Amino acid sequence: MAISHATRNRRTALVTGATGVIGRAIVEGLSSVGTLQVLPTGRNPDKVTTLYPSHSGKVLPGIVLDQGSKDSILALKNQWDFPLHVLVINASATPKKKELTAEGIETQWAVNVLGYHRLIKAMAPLLFRSSQEAGEPSRIVLVASCWAGDLNLSDPEFKQRPYDNGSAYRQSKQAERMLAYAWAIRLQEQYGMFSTGTYKGCPFVTVNACHPGEVNTPLSNSLGFGGHESPSEGADTPVWVATAKELASVSGGWFTYRKRSVCRFASDTVSVGKLWDLVESYG
User: Which of 123, 149, 214, 276 shows the greatest Cβ crowding within 10 Å of its Cβ?
Assistant: First the structure.
């Protein structure tokens, strides 16, 4: 695995969807922060190896990860033998026509929701161990969207209603924001907080969600939009949430343009609980 190229005296970040416009900017932004080294991942083997063919500064050779595949996520977990301090889940899918994964799951639900949930579940123990060894919190950042809503928990895969890629995308981004809150609570309950040192009172593993900037990408085009911001502007908030010292103790937050606000979806704790039960039912 490419992680073998990593340097052990540096903190390590993993970025999903690193072959996309914003994903590439996130990799670049993270690699410019302190001693952080970045492992890019992508679903397409040709793209990820072409964009990240070899060790380049603090960017490691890219590896394949299909976020919509449970087997791919478990393979990553089982092969990983290195500390992990930052997990940025950025990959999303927005097919215009309804598609199913190899597991028979609607693609947006599989990638944008189950993929986020399964990745956190798979990598959380590693993030916890790494935070203990490093003496500072590990961070999980979910790249979601302000364009979110209308989550249908009774028909998340559009089995009973006509598929619409915009509706599927909006509900998936609502679910991501809700999962950020749900995981923040569960990881703090499971792993607790630092009891001594600089980060006393901080969770060992934090989880926050954020909106990237408005960038013109194939994803936004698929949804019928363009974008007026540069890739680096789009990546600014995710990179900041992943690295800012002032956010070390913050978990369960929702951020847009470096500002925290109350997420109305995460505030609906009953629906958050129902969503959790639903995604857990997929295994």
Answer: 123
